[in-house]
Amino acid sequence: MTGTAHTAGAVAAASFALPALGFALGPIFEHNVIRWETVGTVDEFTDDNYVPTVLTVTPGIGEAGKTTVYMRKHNPEIDTDVYDRNTPYVAISDRCVHLGCPVRWVSAAERFICPCHGGVYDLLGKPVAGPPVRPLDRFYTRVTGENVEVGPRFSVNSQLRRFSPRDPGEPLDGIGQYFYPSRPDARK
Amino acid sequence: MPKLPKLPAPPLPGPLQEPPPRPSENGKAGPFDEAKQAGIATVAWVDERTSLSGAARWMMFRKVPKGTNWFYTLGSATMFAFLSQAVTGVFLAMYYRPEANGGAYESIRYITNDVFLGQFVRGMHKWGASVMVVLVFVHMGRTFFFGAYKYPRELNWVIGVVLLILTMAMSFTGYLLPFDERAYWATIVGVNINGTGPLIGPYLSDFLRGGSEIGATTLSRFYAIHMLLIPGLLAALIGAHLYLVAKLGTTAPPWKKSHTRSEMRETEI
Fold first, then answer.
1. Given an 8 Å threshold on Cβ–Cβ distance, is A24 in contact with B203?
2. Which residues from chain B sit within 8 angstroms of residue A181, using beta carbons?
3. What is the model's pTM?
4. CATH number for the B72-248 domain, one of 3.30.1330.30, 1.20.810.10, 3.40.50.720, 3.20.20.210?
């Protein structure tokens, strides 16, 4: 009798607790929809300076869902990362990889500078000063006709090797890539 | 012959005693007396069925050690800060809308500028939050420096630490709700600080945001945590905290020396 009562109690408690828990944890495992958004035309971007463009990362919530992307045409003389059909343009996210504040491109200094805790990045988005732990995130780009489109985000390590997107503050060199696993839906 | 003092009558066994006259039998209780007794009668009616007066006496009429001073009121002060937050929060929830597409900010603007006493009640909640955090830390400092965390009160210290963490979680989740620039960027930084924890950090960030980016889910999630989840936990743990205070009693301040055995003997003689 006692065992049956305890089992019945456990089943009853689990029947509302487990769905509620899954409901709250669900977004962790949700798949991100891949969205491509036109940010400008081919002749708007040069290969030696960045142009700020606005990208919508979360639709439906107005200004809060937008972010800034710095656009530049891929330049084989400066850029050391892999050039393929996914990156005809260098699209650098303004999200500081220290704690997520918005960096701005200061073209006179050729540096990205973060206003919060003094993070500084060079032309390629690699950290040169302050607390950032890896280079700035980037976005995949493609050209459709005359339009330049920006797609999903990806993160890079200090050699500009591509990784699935990580949150700020998570290093991707050495043991860091194992300490900070990517989102479950981003695993290959 | 000297007059002997009159001895009291020997006590009769219960069943043989005359029952005391009931108020209705002596014929003197008019409506005025009834009215005077109404309050007591109501309390007595409840107490007869619940025995709550014993619990109230146990809670309120306790022995306190010599040297108890104003520092001992910091816990009550923190609790009243919490009650103030709860009451003002309930009334703010009557006007607030957790909509990320501008509705949240607009409802806060409406509370601040248009609702009668809205700015005052919102101000109470906003400044009261800081007051509560400060009081929690001062109360914790008092407990530490008076040595009041020692045996047998360790469990109460642990509950207090959980209450401190929950208070900080309230501060963090409440900060996003106005959904202005400050709220937005402070939450981004706060969530990313969470994410720097190895192994579980990234999952914790996704749980807090309700996805990979801050959005409408984040706001409603923070709203539910702020006004439903944590307040219930806080109220329950404050109850446990208070129960242990009443059960174990408070400590004397450290500068009050306890009597030595020889001193006690002297006072007894």
1. no
2. 199, 202
3. 0.85
4. 1.20.810.10
